[in-house]
Structures are given as C-alpha cells and as structure tokens.
Amino acid sequence: MRQKVIAGNWKMFKTVSDAQELVRELKDKVQHIVKTKIILCPPATNLTIVNSLLADSNIKLGAQNLFWEPEGAFTGEISAPMIVSTGAQYVIIGHSERRQYFAESDDTVNMKIKSALKHGLNPILCVGEMLEQREAGITEQVVKGQLTGALAGITADDMENIIIAYEPVWAIGTGKTATPQQAEEVHAFIRKLIAELYQDSTAHRIIIQYGGSVKPDNAAELLGQPDIDGALVGGACLQAESFSAIIAAAEEQQNI
Ligand code: PGA
User: Fold this and answer.
1) Choice among 97, 104, 129, 167 that is catalytic
2) Residue 97 is among the residues annotated as catalytic for this protein
3) DSSP single-letter state for residue 171
4) What angle do CA 115, 121, 124 make, to 5 degrees?
C-alpha cells in the first residue's frame, strides 16, 4: 500500500512571524501522525526559519518553484542548490498558477524537474486541465501532453523521487472540487500512462496527489479512492486546524 502524502502549498501567504505561528500550532496538532508524510511549502522567504522550527518534527519542507540554472545573473530567481541549502527536500514544479501567470511551459517545467533532480530535490509535478478543456472532453489528452513534456528524458530511477499532483485548474481556489469519481478517473489514467512510459512497478509506486479545494469535509472521500495517494492543499493549509484535519483524514485511511 502506498503511503499518503499531504503537502501544503502556502502560495504567496504568510510573513516570517505568521509562518512561525502557524508552524508552531501545526507541529503540536500533528505530533501523533506516524503513517502520513507531511510536507510544508512556504514562500522562499520563510524556508530557513520554517526548517529550523521543523528540526525535531515529523514534517518535511518544500519550496514552491525554482529556476533551472544553479546560479547566475537571474534577478529575482532562486536555484535548486539554494533551496537545498535551506534544508528543503521537495519543490513544487509546474503549478497551474505559474503556467498561467508566469508563462511556464512543458519545456521549462522539464528543465526545472531536471535541475531539481540533479541537485537532490524531489519534485512535486503539477498537471491539470482547464474548465474549457474538460468541457471539450480533452482532459486526458491535456494531462498526457503535460506529463510527457515534463518527463522527457526522465528515467525510471528518477521517477522514484517524483510526486505527481493532479490539479484540475477549475477546482483550484474555487471551492469547486472534482468529485471523487472524476478525480479517480484521471488518477487511474495517469497511473496507466506512467506504466506505459516506464514500468508497472514505477506506476504502482508513484505517489499521485489530488489538488483543488481539498477541505476537511471532502478529504476522506477523495483520499479513499484507490489511485489518490494524497493531497496538495492550498487554502485549507493556511490554518493549522483545517490542515491537521486533512492530515488526520489521510492517517485514518491508512488505519483501515
Ligand atoms: P486550493 O489550492 O486548495 O486552494 O484549491 C490547491 C493548489 O493550488 O495547490
């Protein structure tokens, strides 16, 4: 059985002092969690302080983005080695907000994935269709294009270090969640595609998270689907109460 992995994408929220307060509260609420992997992805400005607060905890740290060059004259960007130096082990890559507002393409996502892996970071690769694409019946085609583009040149060994997050764009921050059946359908499709691109064992092991308005009241049903191995949570991860409730739902699934 695959481990459930719950990641919190803070997006552009929380100052340094807000971050400290949230992490202290959250640590307390999840200290009994042993089966679920928990990852926090705060803004880059909070990585170092959050890492020091997580030192003796069961929570891992991730960044939200990187630039593919290791260093150089790229004002405003941060690189994989810089993220590693904060203590983070994960990085979200290809989030739909970055594709939409910062012109990320499958090619740049691919370069970012390669840079993350080269420097020992575990990418959380986001894919997902827009509403018009779902309505046009091309969800699978879109997701397949994003995955094959992002994974070009990535080996089966590399895949052991990658998490995929399926996030239908129409469900992000809208309060509209995909139904567990809609989500499961795409997750099963992704797993089948990974088996075709790599091997059955790769597909069997890979963690595929669902993201898009995951809340305490819908988490259990989503996480109960056979191919949904976790959640990438936005809005509901900004309060310790709601994020820990989602983590508790994941833990509960593994006790069944
Ligand atoms: P949401 O965000 O939970 O606020 O919909 C999810 C995400 O963008 O990762």
Assistant:
1) 167
2) no
3) G
4) 90
Distance 30 CA to ligand 1 centre (A): 21
End-to-end CA distance of the chain: 11
Local mean pLDDT, 10-residue blocks, the chain (256 residues): 96 98 98 98 98 96 98 98 98 98 98 98 98 96 98 98 97 88 98 98 98 97 98 98 98 90
Instruction: Using a cut of 0.85, tell me whether the model's pTM lies above it.
Output: yes
Pocket test for ligand 1, best of 95, 101, 172 (most atoms within 8 A of CB): 172
Q: Is the CB of 176 under 6 A from ligand 1?
A: no
Contact 192, 232 (CB under 8 A): no
Domain count along the chain: 1
- pLDDT at residue 176 in the model: 82
Q: What is the CATH number of the domain that holds 233?
A: 3.20.20.70
- Bridge partner list, 37: 5
pLDDT of residue 139: 97
Residue 136: alpha-carbon gap to chain centroid: 26
Closest residue CA from atom 9 of ligand 1:
234
Q: Report whether residue 232 contacts ligand 1, using a CB cutoff of 6 Å.
A: yes
Half-sphere exposure of 102 (CA within 13 A, CB side): 13
The reply to whether 204 belongs to the active site is no
Residue 119 CA, ligand 1 centroid: distance in Å: 27
Q: Is 70 in the pocket of ligand 1 (CB under 6 A)?
A: no
Instruction: Give me the pLDDT at residue 185, please.
Output: 98
